[in-house]
UniProtKB/TrEMBL annotation, chain A:
It comes from Arcticibacter svalbardensis MN12-7. Belongs to the UxaA family. GO terms for molecular function: L-fuconate dehydratase activity. It holds the Pfam family GD_AH_C. This is L-fuconate dehydratase, type 2. The keyword Lyase applies.
TrEMBL record, chain B:
CDD domains: SAF_AH_GD. This is D-galactarate dehydratase/Altronate hydrolase-like protein. One of its GO terms (biological process) is D-galacturonate catabolic process. Coiled coil: none annotated. Keywords: Hydrolase. InterPro entries: SAF_UxaA/GarD, UxaA_altronate/galactarate_dh. One of its GO terms (molecular function) is hydrolase activity.
Length: 402, 99
């Protein structure tokens, strides 16, 4: 039925066996005080696949630590420059060691130890110039859909999201799973009311319990945060009940069985469909679970997503550091207005110009095109958003990954 | 142009995929329905008669129950459809597990 073209897909082979669809250099600041130096270094290499990420906090946080370790050894990353002020509490030596052990070129520049801003920038630029040369020798090998991991988020949703982009992404997810790939969805806060339907898709009863508990946790957490879930605009746009609103978001997960539950930075060792539980454990301590779309995208990437699908009705423009973001536009009028930012026009489903299934296939084809040298709209426009804040998580239990 | 779309074969409602104007006609299940008011993109129309108390199905799953009999072709919204959870879920309540 499906006629996916999977010719000439190339990946960058890493020492751990994972294959990236990008071969980029990451510049990572380890405290806000090192942000400027890191940015000065990375902007010297504009349009040369040098991406800036970082953690601004000076207080230690095990979630941020895990995220940074996962991101700096992401399969799309070829080399890493760490920029430290010197007195922050981030465990820079362990991060450096993690990267070294992964076989990637890495350098740690300490601003205090090298003697200030200018010297740190110069050292950083030297390293990146040589790292860009060095990573050209990373082996390029064949890659197939079965080796890809794809995440999904939605943002700037409107009444069309649940009709066009989200079910089309659901179809794409099913196609990815059918072909032996991996797909990750998240935002348990948008599954309130659907925990039974969702957990019924779990491959084991114990996993079903975990999925259900994750949604219950989200309901409690958002309740304490005092964050409502049904705005007047939803009803105006034709949404009547909470279940309906949740379902509009949920249908982007497709119909495949759910193989496991992970938390940000956990990388599934098997293929299949995964729920990422993004809501912190315990009482709220650091604010909203994910204050914006970019922090959700960073978490999906940290859990191994090669690329992220972003469904939007009103029209978000963001991309991301490290992994390409594919914008799937739900609303045909938005697409017309913001065409340069949108990779897929799912809104044509409303005009009967394509079926949900056809757009689902188009999405998967777009994912595959990223492994044959094509760029997404946000990549071409230079988007490299990255957000990482504080969170608290308990490790996942054994029933989460049956 | 067809102005209605059924998202899942199990659904008993259509979603409007192209704004409806008063006087617009649409054949539903062999029955001609004439709309008497404008209805915007994304709103729901009964695909068949839905009885009071019956669940409304969209995306292939229940999204609430009819609070009155809804004829084929009628607008389905806040006036005739209610959540099976908490009528507009208020998050300051303890979470209630579904039966």
């Amino acid at each position: 039925m499906s006629s996916l073209v999977q010719n000439n897909l190339k990946g960058y082979l890493r020492q751990d066996g994972r294959k990236g669809i990008r071969n980029l250099v990451v510049v990572a600041y380890l405290v806000e005080c090192a942000h400027h130096v890191a940015r000065e270094i990375s902007t010297q290499f504009r349009n040369q696949q040098v991406h800036l990420i970082g953690f601004g906090g000076c207080y230690p946080n095990s979630y941020a630590d895990k995220m940074m370790n996962a991101l700096c050894t992401h399969q799309n990353v070829g080399a890493v420059l760490l920029v430290s002020l010197g007195c922050e509490s981030f465990n820079r030596l362990r991060l450096q060691q993690t990267i070294e052990e992964s076989g990637r070129p890495v350098k740690l520049v300490g601003i205090q130890s090298v003697g200030g801003t200018r010297k740190a920038i110069d050292e950083g630029i030297d390293f990146i110039s040589s790292a860009l040369e060095e990573i050209k020798s990373v082996p390029v090998v064949n890659i197939s859909l079965s080796e890809l991991s794809v995440g999904v988020v939605c943002g700037g949703s409107d009444a069309t999201s649940g009709i066009t982009s989200n079910p089309a992404v659901g179809n794409a997810f099913d196609l990815i799973i059918e072909n032996g790939g991996t797909a990750i969805f998240e935002n348990t806060g948008e599954m309130i009311g659907l925990e039974k339907i969702m957990s019924n898709r779990a491959t084991t009863p114990l996993l079903a319990d975990e999925l259900k508990k994750a949604v219950e946790k989200a309901a409690k957490y958002y309740s304490i945060m005092g964050h409502g879930s049904f705005a007047p605009g939803n009803a105006e746009g034709g949404l009547t009940t909470l279940e309906e609103k949740s379902m509009g978001a949920y249908c982007k997960t497709g119909n495949s069985p759910v193989s496991g539950m992970i938390k940000p930075g956990d990388i599934p060792q098997k293929t299949g469909l995964y729920l990422m539980d993004i809501v912190p454990d315990g009482n709220p301590r650091f604010g909203f679970p994910n204050p914006n779309d970019s922090s959700e995208i960073a978490e999906l990437i940290a859990s191994g997503a090669h690329c992220v699908l972003f469904t939007t009705g009103r029209g978000s423009v963001v991309g991301s550091a490290i992994a390409p973001v594919i914008k799937v536009c739900a609303n045909p009028e938005t697409f017309k207005r913001m065409e340069e930012d949108m990779d897929i026009n799912a809104g044509k489903i409303l005009y009967n110009q394509a079926t949900i299934k056809e757009v689902g296939q188009e999405i998967v084809q777009k994912i595959l095109s990223l492994a044959s040298g094509q760029q997404t709209c946000s990549e071409m426009l230079g988007h490299q958003e990255f957000v990482l804040g504080y969170k608290t998580f308990e490790p996942i239990g054994p029933s989460c990954l049956p | 142009m067809n102005k209605l779309i059924k998202i899942n074969p199990l659904d008993n409602v259509f979603a409007i995929c192209n704004g409806i104007l008063p006087g617009d006609e649409q054949e539903i299940d062999g029955v001609l329905v004439v709309f008497d008011k404008p209805l915007g993109l994304g709103h729901k129309i009964a695909a068949r008669p839905i009885l009071k108390g019956e669940q409304v199905i969209k995306f292939g799953v229940p999204i609430g129950s009819a609070i009155e009999d809804i004829p084929r072709g009628a607008h389905v919204h806040l006036h005739n459809l209610k959540s099976d959870y908490i009528s507009t879920y208020t998050l300051d309540h303890e979470f209630i597990s579904p039966k």
